[in-house]
Design brief:
The chain has ten helices and eight strands. By secondary structure, the protein is an alpha/beta fold. Strands 1, 2, 3, 4, 5, 6, 7 and 8 form an eight-stranded mixed beta sheet that branches. Helix 7 packs antiparallel against helix 8. The radius of gyration is 19 Å and the shape is globular. It starts with a strand and ends with a helix.
């Protein structure tokens, strides 16, 4: 097998047949289709299901397709054209709603973003998963966590300027039904793990954007939750108040929250 396409699916998955059919219609040969559920004795998350699928995979490359989504028939063929001996990851764009989103020439400049965060719409060399350490219990921000760790391991990353993956909104998905407090906590946890996995100074702006996204989630879902603010401040924002990279608007917002809740 050249490519193993892994679809995480368990419970109610009414659109699963569409996702599977889009993989079966691929113009590329040597495509293995794996539909995987999370282990019964582990966290019931999409990331756990994906990793379970990878353990069963026989392909040299791994492609993830969510059970709600679908892919164009030439996606795998188009991405494989960019493969080379030193290439470990191939990234493409996606279609979300009516908008087409393409990666930049350097995928790290995109993230965190729709294009970067999407674990799908990318081919990963199978060896990148060997010894991969990610918390499979994360249910929000898990794509960002896994994508960043995998791309950080890659020798070379190629970006293809095509959008052949269709990301479909599903109001019944875990992402849309999750409690707001859990979203903030999960994203803070992801930020902490990535600061450990990607400690190099060149990722400073990348980490800042994750912190900003956690703050925006707090503002959107739990702005009056003082306990959550204190936990977020203790985990992420305390060193940022003195960081020269942050403007007065952000520092002012942090200081106002500190006066209210600390």
């Amino acid at each position: 097998m050249t490519v193993s396409a892994v679809i995480p699916a368990w419970g109610e998955t009414p659109l699963l047949a569409r996702a599977m059919d889009s993989v079966r219609r691929q113009t590329a040969s040597g495509v293995e289709l794996i539909v995987s559920a999370p282990p019964a004795n582990g966290p019931q998350t999409a990331l756990a299901a994906r990793l379970a699928g990878v353990r069963r995979a026989r392909g040299e490359w791994i492609l993830f397709v969510d059970a709600d989504d679908w892919i164009e028939s030439d996606l795998i063929e188009a991405l494989l054209r960019a493969a080379g001996e030193d290439v470990d990851a191939i990234c493409s764009g996606l279609v979300r709603g009516r908008r087409m989103r393409l990666p930049g020439q350097d995928i790290w400049t995109d993230g965190p973003s729709d294009v970067f965060n999407c674990l799908c719409a990318k081919l990963f060399r199978r060896r990148l998963f060997d010894g991969l350490k990610v918390d499979a219990a994360v249910a929000y921000g898990e794509d960002l966590l896994a994508t960043a760790c995998l791309l950080h391991r890659a020798r070379r990353i190629v970006c293809v300027q095509k959008a052949l993956y269709h990301y479909c909104e599903n109001d019944a998905s875990v992402t849309h039904t999750m409690d707001g407090r859990r979203r903030v906590l999960d994203l803070m946890h992801v930020g902490q793990m990535l600061r450990i996995e990607l400690p190099e100074p060149r990722f400073a702006a990348f980490h800042d954007r994750i912190t900003r996204d956690a703050m925006l989630l707090w503002c959107r879902y739990r702005v009056m939750d003082g306990a959550l603010w204190r936990e977020m401040r203790a985990r992420l924002t305390t060193p940022l108040l003195a960081d020269a990279r942050h403007g007065w608007l952000k520092k002012g917002a942090l200081l106002c929250a500190s006066c209210l809740f600390d």
